[in-house]
Amino acid sequence: xxxxxxxxxxxxxxxxxxxxxxxxxxxxxxxxxxxxxxxxxxxxxxxxxxxxxxxxxxxxxxxxxxxxxxxxxxxxxxxxxxxxxxxxxxxxxxxxxxxxxxxxxxxxxxxxxxx
Length: 115
Known about the structure:
This protein is mainly β. The protein is 0% helix and 43% strand.
């Protein structure tokens, strides 16, 4: 197997283990999805919504979602199939640099309240 080298100003690439996809976050506030084969990599889609540098990106393969953190003090959850935003969490006084998750604990169901 040989690889063509591409240059991406990336701060935290993540490889999707079940496919030949790579996610990267960069200083342009975007999360990029790349497809790969034995010879090259090419951009498939761009996820927009962060307002500052993207610091980390991670796949959650069990739920087919992407999680990203940014210097805009947010964590964003994206649908990996449609590349659309699902939810945003903010921490107004904290920068988020490290991202890790226990795959089975991420739960995105809406919470119902009873009055």
